[in-house]
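anyone seen this seq b4? input:
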Amino acid sequence: MDNRFLMGHILGICVATTAMTAPALAQDQSLDAINRRPREVRADRRSDTILLPLLAKVTPPPAVVIAEDGYQMLEPSMEGWAKAEEWVKAEPQVAAIAAIKEATKRFPGNEPGMAFGLTYGVTSESRSAVQINMHVELGNPATISAAKVNYLERLDWLVKAASVEATRLATSGEPGKALDLLLDLAYLGRQVADRELFREAKVGYGIMSFAIERMRDIGWLDFRGEQKLTPDGLAEFLRRLVDENGLWTERIRFPQGDRIGVQQLIDRAYGSSTEADPAKVGPLMARVSSAEQPLKIFNESARWSALASSMPSKPDAERALADAYGDWEQRWRLSWFDPRMRTTPRFKLINPSRQPMVGSMSDMFELFELRQIVRVEIVGSRTALGMLGYYYANRSVPPSIAALRPRFITAVDADPFNNERIDVGAVPPLYLLRPIVDTQGRPHNMTIVVENRDNFSVPLKDDVWVLYSVGSDNLPNLARVVQNTWKRVTSADYLIWPPVNSLYRQYLKDTDRIK
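predicted toks r here
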């Protein structure tokens, strides 16, 4: 088909969409609703105004930083490090990394903290972000479900740059600064996790878990290297890891943007009628389903128009939305071990052919799973770095996790995957295993299963200790097989120390995958 012909049809669809929704836009409350919380952020507490101008200047990471997860696997002795270091020491990356601290600074008491206050769409508050294409684009007319979150790619580049910089600091004698940088990065991830769209929240939780896991990796590099970290420095760092303002995940609320976006679709497709208008449904849903591939919009419009006649009444569509979202919101407040968390979410029961607008949402139960991983990462890193501090202070492995009190931890944290007797107030801790001492004089052989990577095994001797969570099957299995995932894996534990990434780096070196 001639491209001019196709683009003509696309333009026609867009014009039709604009025309059909113009009356509705005057009464469209969706944009006010999704922007309510961003607008509550004080101007002097907006981290986005600090970061976005610098993110716009960050340059793409070189191939060595991306390949084999080089941004966390490379170290100075390896080929490719010089290119990674050159990239991270270039001015755009240096400025953006330095800005993370300013964007995540904490305040005492009840002072409001920093927040990513970027509003959605083209607003007076987002004008500067729009000028550098670092905004959340909603199109014309502004359609939340078709949002393009333009800043996320550059944010990913910044995370990779911060990771390389953490390695550079740790291996040049400043591991304490590396930990501080990763802590700031974790707080930045927390801000993004508290945004309104699923895509943003998912990225935010990913940044949090990555940054916290890398803290242990930095600890391992120091433990196997020059041991520059000090007991006092680690004790102070652990006090800041979860301070009075809280990195803790329980403060992050369930995002509302996707619900607001679907309600906007329903309002536009049905208007004041109880039946969907095919002339509105086609162009509207075509925009949503082809947001990332605009050339598909013509075929998508015809397909959605054909489905309009079988769509439910407006009250039925709104009930389905309230039912699915209400179920997620109720579960968000439940314990991971609540029986309801094992039941099928209401969203899974929706027939997307019958309820196409509600069915177009992402499955937001993924956020529950990501949150659980962050929980175990926080508990694991607090405990692991506390054990490292104890080892540095006493030159011996602590006999138990309780021995870390009060210098390194104020209380023993419960393993987020262990439900043993929590119904009577028990606090089941992570498990500690000391090879040779606890394994009848034999090395501890451990198999590591890593998603999308090679599985490998390591023999551990008495020069290291093993710290692990019971993992997704909620049962201790002596860390013979470890697989760090929320997915239920029988007979596999969740490894905290030695860190999985540290062991995988050594595996890549031993097999000449990274030289």
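The chain is about 50% helix and 5% strand. Residues 385 and 450 are 23 Å apart (CA to CA). kinda curious what u guys think
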